[in-house]
Amino acid sequence: MTVAFDLFVRNCAELVTARGTLSPNQKAEAALDIIPRGAVGIAAGKVVFVGPEADVPPAAVAPFTEVVDADGGVVAPGLVDPHTHLVFAGERSAEFDLRNQGATYLEIAKAGGGIVSTVRATRAASLEELVALARPRLVRLLEQGVTTCEVKSGYGLDVETELKMLRAVQQLRREVPVDLVPTLLCAHAIPEEFKANREGYVERCIREIIPAVAREGLARFCDAFVEESAFTHDEARRIFEAARAHGMRIRLHADQLTANGGAQLAAEVGALSADHLEQVSDEGIAALARAGVTALLVPTSTLFLRMRPYAPGRKLVDAGVNVALGTNVNPGSSMTENVGVVLSLACLENGLSAAEALWGMTRGAAIALGLAQHGQLVEGGPADLVVFGCSTYRHLPYHLGVNHARVVVKGGRVVVRPGGAGVAVCR
Length: 427
Ligand code: NIG
Prior knowledge:
Elements: E1 7-16, H1 28-31, E2 34-43, E3 46-52, E4 66-77, E5 79-81, H2 93-100, H3 105-110, H4 115-124, H5 127-143, E6 146-152, H6 159-175, E7 179-187, H7 198-215, E8 221-225, H8 233-245, E9 249-254, H9 262-269, E10 273-276, H10 282-291, E11 294-297, H11 299-304, H12 313-318, E12 323-325, H13 339-348, H14 354-360, H15 363-368, E13 385-388, H16 395-398, E14 405-410, E15 413-416
Helix pairs in contact: 5-6, 6-7, 7-8, 9-10, 13-14
The protein binds N-(iminomethyl)-L-glutamic acid.
């Protein structure tokens, strides 16, 4: 029996399904599985038809069906941003200026700036203030087609503020039509009050912060910044062990500022993703490939920190690693919600093809978050999609810094429309 569509998206020059699987014989372009002149039918918040428009059963388009004409544009799964620090208070434009005059990220951090300065501002903000600050950032992502977004804590570094940040994520989830995936990042930096007692802080993470967050079910993942200036391998291992015992899965900031074996640690602990990887070694790449860990690249932070090299995206893909891309929105190393710039830098500097970049913000990113059905358009899957006003997906990275999204559908509902009443935010 033909199911009548609630929503019918038609006239797509390219319908990107991303329903394929990457393998040595199937590269991203094939895994995107693009249908020319395609259409999508949606009923009861789920995709019920994906295919050539010519194959749509006539009875499926009913008088009540809302029709979205893609006008010869590209239709893709709703984008997935798998690495953000969206919830924070304060700003660090003075540090940006200092870096542009030669100071480094680490020098600024050692002088009392960096992450701990955002911690001071975030501790001082109320839950409502954090939500109000994060909401427009999230809406900016949604307006570009992001329908699923990971959000980390990590600017609290004490029980109360880590809980406050993750409760802010819960609140945002109720207000903005984006699926939010919360991550506990209590191991982001050693807080100032524990500078002379880092062991005391690691113990606090293990005995207080992780259990408190788990009690409220506030985080799906636990992350750690493994770096000379942050946490050692052993400290991260202990924190991950505690997080895992509380039902959280693992991801980590690896090999960002120094080559420190972070990728190998990600492989050892069974992380879903190793993020950053600017300094990853060949051994690290091989370890990620063997363990099936996603390499999650955040090229806007390489740009923003004026660092070289960019993460070796080409090598990672060629080694058979799933590569995902994120905006890494945060006040220190990537003050941007611009998805287009991420896709462009991934091609220009990480060496990815346009197809690999789009995979990295659709299915590749969903895999990094352990999401079985997101980031692709399949019958029975979530009805999250974006209509881009360009004739080929290659324009997404090619036309740099432009928001091509015209219509965004979340859970079968149009939440962004051109010249429309704006994004549907419930307050
Ligand atoms: O992913 N590297 C650590 N964390 C962030 C930066 C956070 C900050 O500087 O506030 C990142 O780049």
